[in-house]
Amino acid sequence: MKPFQLIPEPDNKIPMENYMKNNFIFLGVKSPSRKEQSKDLIKQSRYMTSKERFILVKDLYSKTEREYQYIAIDICQVNASKMNYDELIAYLPLIEEKAWWDSVDAWRKVFGDYIKKHPDEKEKVFELFFKHSNFWMRRISIILQLTEKEKTDKTMLTKEILFDLETDEFFIQKAIGWSLRQYSKVNPKWVKSFVIEHNLSALAEREALKQIRKGEVVI
């Protein structure tokens, strides 16, 4: 297969790098253009063997420019529902490479889609990230169930939040608030009680109660 190359869009390069605190080099290819340029590659990935797909994803992830990591994760996401557990966990080491909120949150979607397809394996997937030494991995355990709505496992959510309750890391505290805010859309009474009963950080509490305080959910 011919090596995939994005067409740079230099006018966007500096603003995109600044937005990501200059942690990564960008080509300046924004999401709509990236998806358009990579659509044929992503379509091809659906017909690859798991080994071929893994090699492609690793190759893309190794490239310097940030957009290639996004495409690698896009490929995993569109194929997540057809993966088995062993295929899924083969990608775990990549999450810790070049980790930042943008890639970590995108990887969360991959694992989130997997547990939707395999709900009986949710706890097993959760345990991959729970108590991990890398806080970026623990961020995934906190936000793993973001789109689970009524199917959210409250015990699992509580376990991870309490583990990181006093972790002095912005991206962890933000994730705690985010996960609770999402769940407040379907169970605001439980979320409000949880906040009252536990000493959340100011950031986590503010995020958790955002929908409730705006009156966008009814208790």
TrEMBL record:
Pfam families per record: DNA_alkylation
Keyword Transcription: no
Matches recorded under SUPFAM superfamilies: ARM repeat
Keywords assigned by UniProt, alphabetized: Methyltransferase, Transferase
Any GO BP: methylation
GO MF, any single term: methyltransferase activity
Superkingdom, natural source: Bacteria
Name of this protein: 6-O-methylguanine DNA methyltransferase
Organism expressing this protein natively: Vagococcus fluvialis
